[in-house]
Amino acid sequence: MWEQGSPLVIEEAELDAPHAGEVLVEVKAVGVCHSDLHPARGDWPAKTPLVLGHEGTGIVREVGTGVTKVRPGDHVVFCWAPACGKCPMCVAGRPVLCDRLSKTTYRNRLPGGGTRLRARGQDVAHFNSTACFADYTVIDEDGAIPISPDVPFAVLATIGCAVVTGVGAVNNAARVQAGDSVVIIGAGGVGLNVAQGAALAKCEPIIAVDLRATALTLARDFGATHTIAAATQNVVEAVRELTRGRGADCVFDTVGAATTITQALDCARKGGAIVVTGLSRTDALVSIPTFPFVMQEKRLIGSLYGSGQPVVDIPRLVELYRDGKIKLRELVTHSYRLDEVNDALNKLAEGTDARGIIQW
């Protein structure tokens, strides 16, 4: 990405060998996520040039000095938030809030400092410390989670962001109980995984809300027991009807817009939780009443990257897939070549994919 708002350019770049604590990975499949679309379209500020891509999988080809967690030939899923393991948040068991991330990942630098990429005679940044819209990438060893080689790369492409975010929001942020009623606003890649996380937890009912009929059909395949067409139905009234007039125990907003957060608040019961996983523009604001937070004890919770421990959660999700308990392959509705990345981003913006992937 040489300029925000312009198409990405496919070209040769120089990639250094991995430094100490880093690994070189040959990329095999990458999910195309809204977190890639936002900087590409200018919704989030980003210094260019920048290689996008953060939700991927591949094979370790080379390791730097001191690397102990993976070795050449290992199949890995990328964790775009490699934690330091030492700061107060890490020690408290909340590595997705690691203090180091604001200095490295969110500045599109590697944890080891700076970049390993150059093109046209200048440094190129690594988006989310990952930069995997590329044939090869160098990442921190803590961002490479080894996975059994018998799981296809196309299956693994989405697990490092959409799947762990959606299922983790259910288990770690909301901590739902069996029998809890759940509403999911937005049945995209994350929303579908909220649905299957809620189904695993034996929630009932599981109500998916979306503007798109195709998304609602997919949501039923992933565990939703009921669907609401937001384009034609009054969402709050429909939720009340399906929850005996009470509202839902937990509402997940995977969109994060002002209108959906307000809607989520209205859909939650007294004492209920609203969990927001969706990220919109960095300057987006929402105006909501304070009354329900006191008089009805509603709770507004933010959830980042599943609110858990990705290095533990991602292998566990792979095992759930191997046991037939969650769907992964079905998340992929389109597959693209790397030189079709702009088509993939456009399709995502149009809302026609559950998850599109770039596959080598």
Task: Explain what this protein looks like in three dimensions.
Helix 4 (159-174) crosses helix 5 (189-200), helix 4 (159-174) crosses helix 10 and helix 7 runs parallel beside helix 8. The protein is 28% helix and 24% strand. Strand 14 (268-276), helix 9 (291-295) and strand 15 form a beta-alpha-beta unit. It contains eleven helices and 17 strands. The mean pLDDT is 95. The chain has two domains: 14-158 and 328-359, Medium-chain alcohol dehydrogenases, catalytic domain (Quinone Oxidoreductase, Chain A, domain 1); 166-303, Rossmann fold, CATH 3.40.50. Strands 2, 4, 5, 8, 9, 16 and 17 form a seven-stranded mixed sheet that branches. Strands 12-11-10-13-14-15 form a six-stranded parallel sheet, with helices on both faces. The protein has a four-stranded mixed sheet with strand order 1-6-7-3, with no helix packed on it. The protein has 360 residues and is of the alpha/beta class. The longest helix is centred in the middle third of the chain and has 16 residues, at 159-174. The two termini are 20 Å apart. It has helices at residues 34-41, 88-91, 153-156, 159-174, 189-200, 213-221, 235-242, 258-267, 291-295, 310-322, 341-350, and strands at 14-15, 22-32, 50-51, 55-63, 75-78, 117-119, 122-126, 136-140, 144-147, 182-185, 206-210, 226-229, 248-253, 268-276, 299-302, 332-336, 355-359.
